[in-house]
Amino acid sequence: MEIVRCGQCGRKLAEAEYSRLAIKCPRCGTMNELKACEPLTSAPRAPDQEVYDGKTNCPLGGRQTSPS
Protein backbone atom coordinates (compact mmCIF):
# COMPACT_ATOMS: atom_id res chain seq x y z
CA MET A 1 0.00 0.00 0.00
CA GLU A 2 1.08 3.52 -0.67
CA ILE A 3 0.78 6.41 1.78
CA VAL A 4 -1.22 9.31 0.31
CA ARG A 5 -0.32 12.78 1.56
CA CYS A 6 -1.81 16.21 0.85
CA GLY A 7 0.11 18.02 -1.86
CA GLN A 8 -0.32 21.38 -0.07
CA CYS A 9 0.27 20.76 3.64
CA GLY A 10 1.70 17.21 3.70
CA ARG A 11 -0.91 15.69 6.03
CA LYS A 12 -1.34 11.93 5.71
CA LEU A 13 -4.71 11.33 4.10
CA ALA A 14 -4.79 7.58 3.46
CA GLU A 15 -2.95 4.33 2.84
CA ALA A 16 -4.29 2.93 -0.40
CA GLU A 17 -3.86 1.01 -3.62
CA TYR A 18 -5.59 3.01 -6.32
CA SER A 19 -5.87 3.67 -10.02
CA ARG A 20 -7.64 7.03 -9.50
CA LEU A 21 -8.29 8.86 -6.25
CA ALA A 22 -9.85 12.21 -5.34
CA ILE A 23 -9.68 13.17 -1.66
CA LYS A 24 -10.13 16.50 0.15
CA CYS A 25 -7.69 17.36 2.92
CA PRO A 26 -9.55 18.10 6.17
CA ARG A 27 -6.73 20.36 7.40
CA CYS A 28 -6.26 22.82 4.51
CA GLY A 29 -9.23 22.01 2.23
CA THR A 30 -7.10 21.21 -0.85
CA MET A 31 -8.66 18.75 -3.28
CA ASN A 32 -6.02 16.12 -4.09
CA GLU A 33 -6.56 14.17 -7.33
CA LEU A 34 -4.17 11.30 -7.97
CA LYS A 35 -3.74 8.78 -10.78
CA ALA A 36 -1.56 5.69 -10.78
CA CYS A 37 1.43 5.92 -13.12
CA GLU A 38 1.09 2.23 -13.98
CA PRO A 39 -2.06 0.12 -13.92
CA LEU A 40 -2.50 -2.22 -11.00
CA THR A 41 -1.17 -5.64 -11.86
CA SER A 42 -2.83 -8.87 -10.91
CA ALA A 43 -1.16 -12.17 -10.24
CA PRO A 44 -0.37 -14.09 -13.42
CA ARG A 45 -3.05 -16.59 -14.35
CA ALA A 46 -2.26 -20.26 -14.56
CA PRO A 47 -2.77 -21.74 -18.01
CA ASP A 48 -5.88 -23.86 -18.52
CA GLN A 49 -3.82 -26.79 -19.78
CA GLU A 50 -0.08 -27.19 -19.77
CA VAL A 51 1.50 -28.92 -22.74
CA TYR A 52 4.65 -31.02 -22.42
CA ASP A 53 6.07 -32.96 -25.38
CA GLY A 54 2.80 -32.65 -27.29
CA LYS A 55 0.77 -34.24 -24.49
CA THR A 56 -1.52 -32.37 -22.14
CA ASN A 57 -0.95 -32.48 -18.41
CA CYS A 58 -4.58 -33.47 -17.81
CA PRO A 59 -4.78 -37.25 -17.46
CA LEU A 60 -8.11 -38.90 -18.18
CA GLY A 61 -7.78 -41.06 -15.04
CA GLY A 62 -8.83 -44.27 -16.78
CA ARG A 63 -11.86 -42.65 -18.40
CA GLN A 64 -12.50 -43.20 -22.07
CA THR A 65 -14.41 -41.02 -24.45
CA SER A 66 -17.73 -42.39 -25.62
CA PRO A 67 -17.88 -43.59 -29.25
CA SER A 68 -19.60 -41.18 -31.61
UniProtKB/TrEMBL annotation:
GO terms for molecular function: DNA binding. Residues 46-68 are annotated as: Disordered. Keywords: DNA-binding. This is Com family DNA-binding transcriptional regulator. It comes from Methylomonas fluvii. The lineage of its organism: Bacteria, Pseudomonadati, Pseudomonadota, Gammaproteobacteria, Methylococcales.
